[in-house]
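Handout, section 4.2: multi-component inputs.
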Amino acid sequence: MTTLQINEAIPTAKGESRFRWQRLLVVVGYALLILIAFLEIAPFVMTVASSFKCEPAIGTYPAAFIPLPPLVQCQNTDAAGSTTRLSADQQVSGATFNPTTSGYERILGEGADLPRWALNTVIYSVVVTLLRLTFDSMAGYALARFSFPGNRVLFFIVLGTLMIPGVVLLIPRFLMLKQMGLLNSYWGYFLVLGADAFGILLMKQFFESIPKEIEEAASVDGSSRFTTFFRIVLPMATPALVALTIFSFQGQWNNFMDALIIVGTNTTLYNLPMGLTVLRGSGQDLQFDLILAGSVITTLPMAVIFFMFQRYFVEGVSYSGLKG
Amino acid sequence: MTTTTAAASQKQKAIREPNAKRQEAVAGLGFTLPALLILVVFLILPLFVAGYFSLTDWNGRTPLTNPTAYEYIGFQNYQRLLIDGRRVDDFYNAFKNTFYYAFGVIPTQTIIALVLAVIVNQRWLRGRGIFRTAFYFPSITSSIVVSMIFLFMFSNTGPVNGALRALFPNFQNVSWLTDNNGVIHNILGLIGITADTVPALTETEIFRISIWEWISGPSVAMFTIMVLAIWTTIGTMMVVYLAALQNIPSQVYEAAQVDGATAWQTFRRITLPLLKPTTFFVVTLGLIGTFQVFDQIYILQSNVTHRTTMSIAYLVYDQAFKTDPNMGRATAIAITLFVIIFIATLLQRRFVGGDRSET
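Output:
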């Protein structure tokens, strides 16, 4: 692009035509980015907007996306006691609609399972993340720093497990847990996911990049390896730990396949992705108000975390990419 | 550290040497033990368990304590699955679907991600952060949520049909998620080629599936799931490409400019080759991800599209957990999938080339 900028300064015929090319490129570039950004974001806008609509209004087009007060009820009981449902035309006018919280009330209200699923999701994500931070960094540190018999073998075992596709493990893991009596339990979930090869390699790489001298000084001071690790080494590893936290928390918050296998037949142990499949139901008659409200609730915490720590998300992805 | 203390510590070290070595070994094993146990018990052992049961006729339901639970049958599961079984077409049908899925999704998402990254990396661009956030956002949420959103967007009365009707007045609503017609069949139909006009293709079968069926392309329903995959992934891939682009030193471009290279030549001859390792990484991620497609199918398949949206990964689950399960066959498919992914990764290493020294 620098080429073209230089040519801008030279008023030759060739430069002129190149300048025009450059302008065209800018316009096309912006147009493409805006189009794709629209395609990526519009479905989310439509999902959030429609989650505040009554069933009949969800399937109307042009799809209204601007909520205007007042709040409405989807079902109204008149004085005579007969119930009427709010029609699409009553709720929607042009691009605006009167929002309802009926979908949210139904999945969060009395007797609903979703709060339990949300709690489970928090428990799974937090515990697995803490376990991985501890076990992955310990193993990563040992692989990076200690020479002990089997160090190389261990490293190749870790590297090898990265190659095993998760789908292939679906059934054997189920069988193992069944034999161990850990199927449908929190413990089963924590144990299976409590350490991962990616995290270990991430931490190993990080520890290799920091100088040894500080730890050596500490060991001269007489503190044990364990103390040195938790008091001195780990605090220095904050950037890698942040990346690992984000990867593992996001992975577990959204984890469907492992939950399906480990806690699949006990709805009280479901996480949010599993819960969403319950809201979807098995028939063709979909209750979109529930599905969309559930989707928004599932995504909201991740979205908040993403906007708070966006830099780390993007850095984490590019970090893993460059290592590839 | 002064010389004296350094010397002193050196001396201490020498005295403690054999002891320290053993200590280090103990510490090394102790530090790796928890993670190692988890990896071995829940990642490596299961793989061998799967390999073992793939050689048996266990149904997965009879308790293993029952002596008649299963029999060792050698490679019969593989043979029935791949060569001469009654359900041979099940596997090849899933293979066909997964193949179209992978080879539709991977090139598309890689090229779009690369183009977006190149534009976002331009110096004249304003609002870089906003674009990056918009592209990346879909990948923070669950595959299940994304599937639910697509269920809604692509439903018969959903926004996608609505928007297409608004853009093209003659547009007839497409039932995106329940349409079993092959995309390539549809395209051939436009130029007058249908099953009736090519009897040779409909009559010849390879692995119990006619050639005409092999070239169907993904069904419209599967095509919609492919759009979903591309839609979700391009953000992540773009961020990876962008990081790599920003890592290319500006001197490289300056040198190209001095040599009088055009923008296209610079891209073609310098940027692309320098991005080769990244492309290898992105394509590998794509291969591993697409060959394992499961969550989206679990949500978006229905009785109607059971056959045309069946992926290999979903077939594994289906065989293991259906009402009449067959764990031997399920594990045999799982192991076969493992081998397929492994071979695909090796092949792409040859074609894309992951070796940095090559570039």
